[in-house]
Amino acid sequence: MSFRAASSLRSICRLQPPCLRASPGHPSVRGMSPPLKGVKILDLTRVLAAPTATMLLADLGADVIKVEEVERGDDTRSWHPPCAALIPEAPEEAAHLPPESAYFLSVNRGKRSITVNFKEPEGLEIMHKLVKGADVLVENFVAGKLAKVGLGWEDCKKINPRLIYASVTGYGQTGPYAEQAGYDVIIEAEAGLMHITGEPDRPPSKVGVAVTDIACGLYAHGAIMAALLSRQQTGEGVWIDCNLFDSQIAGLFNIASNYLIAGQEAGRFGTAHPSIVPYQVFPCKDGFLMIGAANNRQFGILATQILELPHLAIDPKFAAPSDRVAHREELIGIIERRLREEPQDVWVRKFRGKGVPFGPINNIRQTFEHPQAVARGATIDVNHPRAGKIKMVAPAVHYNGSRMPVTRPPPWLSQHTNEVLHEIGYNDDQINMLKKRRVI
Question: Distance between CA atoms of 131 and 151, rounded to whole angstroms?
Fold first, then answer.
């Protein structure tokens, strides 16, 4: 470890409250202070990928100011139904707005919302004042678009040399596709994911949730955290170029390596695995089970103790993993016929505790009723000013045994415009004039 790295780690440790430092003598310490408390993030993002990144930063204590279009706001605000029902006590100043869409609520907790038309000179002036006081700016406009209105990386760096500027786009800042908009499902198609998703005898399929968007948001979140550490060492800002296309290619992992190392083209296997049998979804009498017997020991247990077909364990056609792959259709047919004889709950009991990976195919209700989801507190109740108490998915990570608390509900459109403008020096008369002119 270099002297600089060691010094940086020591300074990070000094920033932690003493009660939260790791200590073998204090195993009862729970939770962690929000590490991004005091970090101000200017969020010029919409839809899913980049808002995922800024929501995760808000979870860690950052003050995230979401800058939205004046009339409509984030596109996902209009993506309803479903939406949260409004309560009678909802603020009168938000009465003209539509209900809060479930989609928007899912990816905007912990943020403040302001509306600014930064194509107008007064709006651009507001944005420049916000940039001056920000630690991070996150945007997901098409490459080069913000530079045309005076909010590109070079513009903002002149105002705030310490600014971390994260651009989240479809294809990145360079290359022949740089100025094209990016959409999850299109990138799934272009960057290989759709080609390997679906049944072998059916057309390519998209994944059931926008995984490319989400993966890109996770990459952006990690990159911003890295840039904050870099700035601590250098005192300089960073321009982050994160995009859906690169993120999806990186996410091909072993499939990409198979091609790059061995020239092996991939195909669609449905829920099955090209190199492991049995490793797929099977129908039973009244539902489905995912089963993965990845080695000889697991296959032997599956055959003898669970399926009660001991002859499979000694049949030379199924003796080794490569043999089971070679006789895939025959073996899958035998297992499927056996599983169809009993309902799902019977098989779950037979599998449990045997050491063979398995899982029932749960719908969304069953997922949230899963005993592990209940035990881990997978959902939280959040009080929303327009919708009352709403249920949300909890942050995924625990720190010293506790999740980060959600301190703000997702905002209604322009909920914090006055508040934020007061913070940067505007008075009520100025704010009212800007509202009349539809600048905010």
Answer: 9
Other CB atoms within a 10 A radius of the CB of residue 349 amount to 10
CA distance 391 to 388: 10
- C-beta atoms surrounding 91 within 10 Å: 11
Active-site option among 155, 213, 323, 429: 213
Residues of the chain with pLDDT under 50: 1-29
Torsion of CA 183, 185, 188, 194, to 10 degrees: -170
Q: What's the pLDDT at 30?
A: 77
Query: Which of 409, 434, 426 minimizes the C-alpha distance to 112?
Result: 409
β-pair partners for 288: 283
Residue 258 amino acid letter:
N
3-state helix, strand, coil in the chain (%, to 5): 40, 15, 45
Residues 390-394: contacts with CB under 8 Å, at least 24 apart: 390/84, 390/105, 392/105, 392/106, 392/109, 393/106
Q: What are the residues facing 67 on neighbouring strands?
A: 114
Contact 384, 410 (CB under 8 A): yes
CB-facing half-sphere around the CA of 36: CA atoms within 13 A: 26
Contact 126, 202 (CB under 8 A): no
Handedness of CA 100, 105, 109, 111 (dihedral sign): negative
Question: Are the beta carbons of 137 and 156 closer than 8 angstroms?
Answer: yes
Assess contact for 98 and 78: CB atoms under 8 A: yes
Using alpha carbons, select from 331, 343, 330 the residue that is nearest to residue 299: 331
CA nearest neighbour of 126 among 440, 411, 432:
440
184 flagged as catalytic: no
Distance CA 293, CA 335 (A): 12
* pLDDT (0 to 100) of residue 280: 97
Q: Report how far residue 121's alpha carbon sits from residue 128's, in angstroms, rounded to the nearest whole number.
A: 10
Residues with Cβ within 8 Å of residue 61, at least 6 apart in sequence:
33, 34, 35, 36, 37, 38, 39, 404
For 56, the token pair is 């995760």
Of 202, 348, 331, which Cα lies nearest the Cα of 284?
348
Beta strands in 5-139 (DSSP E): 40-44, 63-68, 83-84, 100-101, 111-115, 136-139
Q: Tokens 């009168």 — which residue?
A: 92
Q: Round to whole Å and give the CA distance between 167 and 174.
A: 12
Round to whole Å and give the CA distance between 247 and 168: 11
Q: What single letter denotes the amino acid at residue 19?
A: C
